[in-house]
Amino acid sequence: MAILAWNVRGLGNKETVRGLKNAIQKFQPEMAFLSETKQQKRYLEKIRMKMKMEQYFYIEPNGIAGGLALWWFKNAKINILKYGKNFIDAEISVDGESKWFGTFIYGPPYKEENREFWEFMSNLRNGSDERWLVIGDSNVVSSQEEKIGGASFNPNNARSYFGFVDTQGLIDLPIAGGSFTWSNQRCEEEAILEKLDRVLCSPDWNSFFPKAVTFLDIAIGSDHSPVIVLLKGFKRKYEDFKFESKWLLKEDCTSTVHDSWISTSQPRNSHRFGSKLRRTKFSLIRWSKLKSRINNQKKLELEKKIKSYQGKQLSKEELTPQNELNLQNKEG
């Protein structure tokens, strides 16, 4: 049970569409929220159908600026309550569970409009006694720790946002996989990194989904990283992942780690390290499963040969399959 939220910075880019397709295939979210689509409904519908998402709701862009899309599968029952150019507010139930509220946001990039937006959001709900999730691009930096490079943090720019969070008693859920969600995609001293994308929830929502985890996926074709929320936490296969020291004896294990480690490019070390670890982990999971299937197939073939030799006096050459099978069993 997952939610994907991503400022795609325009879906006219084929690379961005491929990145979106990969994220939907990988995480299989019940709902996907896209901001800054910059595309009309007719074009977005073609992409949605390729992604095989079943339901939709759109906010058209203003010319080539803005635009929101909310896609979902039929197992998610979504009732749109209110909407505007910067938000979609809905009542949600997934797989027949109890209802909760979800507000999908794209905070205005301009200071005055941003202030008005958060003042509006402060009056949208009745407070922390409701199950409420707020997710998307806030276009707000809330502390100096949430940015590197560029102008210093100015708390006055976040005053309306703080008022919204405090009034509603919301929790800013930590996002794993990097401290920053947006980059100007430049290097070294020219790089600017900021945490703009957020997942906020009420205490009641947090209690309803106590195992919920939030993390970043790899940014492809956009200056924002996709945000993934797993409402019921990671599947056990990922929790139980352990690196086996015997893998180090395999040459292709070393190359798997090497290729995964160098394939992630982020402008600063603080953002790059988490992405490298995540990619390497999932690459090793895939590699170990493939290796296990190959080894199991080889064992079956050797066992078949050995069975055909049973009851016979074997030559040195015919003993080879037995020796190979013994070695494989020792290796695990």
From TrEMBL:
It comes from the Eukaryota. Signal peptide: none annotated. SUPFAM superfamilies: DNase I-like. Residues 5-224 form the Endonuclease/exonuclease/phosphatase domain. The chain crosses the membrane at residues 56-73. Keywords: Membrane, Transmembrane, Transmembrane helix. It holds the Pfam family Exo_endo_phos. PANTHER family: BNAC02G09200D PROTEIN, OS06G0205337 PROTEIN. This is Endonuclease/exonuclease/phosphatase domain-containing protein.
